[in-house]
Design a protein that fits this description.
This is O-methyltransferase. Keywords: Methyltransferase, S-adenosyl-L-methionine, Transferase. InterPro entries: Cation-dep_OMT, SAM-dependent_MTases_sf, SAM_O-MeTrfase. Pfam families: Methyltransf_3. With 222 residues, the chain is of the alpha/beta class. It has one domain: Vaccinia Virus protein VP39 (Rossmann fold, 3-Layer(aba) Sandwich), CATH 3.40.50.150. The protein has a seven-stranded mixed beta sheet, with helices on both faces. Strand 4, helix 7 and strand 5 form a beta-alpha-beta unit. The N and C termini lie far apart (45 Å). Bound molecules: S-adenosylmethionine. S-adenosylmethionine binds next to helix 4 and strand 2.
Length: 222
């Protein structure tokens, strides 16, 4: 069926172009010990996040949703010397796993995993007047995405890039009548982006090991 073909092609592309070193493979494997096994990005998606970080020369990265730290490691490596990734995670169990994975991947000193509800953690960053972030990856509880986006606008600058995962959700986000709170969250976030003249955005559908889904890529222009 088409899902198994998409999986085969994803594996082919990952094996051919991307690969994972031992630390990334270990981080992915450790996801089984988290509260939500297997929902981290794929290696080719991780590389995309890393390349975007490198392309804009991002040194300061903010992430919503750490899990085992898989995407965090890709982004932390991409920030280079002096980079920092602040990652917000609800579950202490996941945060501990992610910190250990970051150590093993050689980026332990570049990551800061903050435990607690991301809304409160992000609000605390706003209140502390944190130095703005250059790149943001939103990948936590999907229904809260509009709130996360509002907070992100308080801690970014013109030129910052924001990526939101899971904006397609097997096509369900195109359904204006959906009562699924995760779908409604994504639709609200996309509408908010479209209504904000400070933001330029696109979104792309993807198929592969994560099923049928997609990323929104947003650039803050003012
Ligand atoms: N970005 C990770 C990666 O690709 O490697 C995957 C993150 S996973 C999709 C979502 C994470 O968000 C889970 O670890 C979950 O515990 C966390 N999460 C869920 N609700 C949250 C909340 N309210 N605040 C912070 N984190 C939350």
């Amino acid at each position: 069926d088409s899902q198994s073909q998409w999986d085969d092609v994803d594996r082919y592309l990952i094996d051919t172009l991307v690969g994972e070193d031992a630390a990334l493979a270990a981080a992915r494997a450790s996801s089984r010990d988290t509260t939500a096994p297997g929902i981290e990005v794929t290696a080719n998606q991780g590389r995309l996040l890393g390349m975007l970080v490198e392309l804009i020369g991002a040194k300061r990265v903010l992430e919503f949703g750490t899990l085992a730290g898989y995407s965090m490691i890709w982004m932390a490596r991409a920030t280079g010397e002096g980079g920092v990734v602040t990652s917000l995670e609800l579950e202490e169990q996941n945060a501990a796993i992610a910190r250990a994975n970051a150590e093993r991947a050689g980026v332990g000193d570049r990551v800061d995993v903050i435990v607690g509800p991301a809304r409160a953690s992000a609000q605390a960053l706003v209140d502390a007047g944190v130095e703005p972030y250059d790149f943001v990856f939103i990948d936590a509880d999907k229904q809260s995405t509009p709130e996360y986006l509002r907070l992100v606008l308080e801690v970014t600058h013109p030129g910052s890039v924001i990526v939101i995962d899971n904006v397609v959700r097997e096509g369900s986000t195109a359904d204006a009548d959906s009562t699924d709170e995760q779908v409604r969250g994504m639709r609200t976030a996309l509408a908010d982006i479209a209504a904000n003249p400070a933001l330029e955005a696109t979104a792309l559908q993807t198929v592969g090991l994560k099923g049928w889904d997609g990323f929104a890529i947003i650039r803050r222009v003012s």
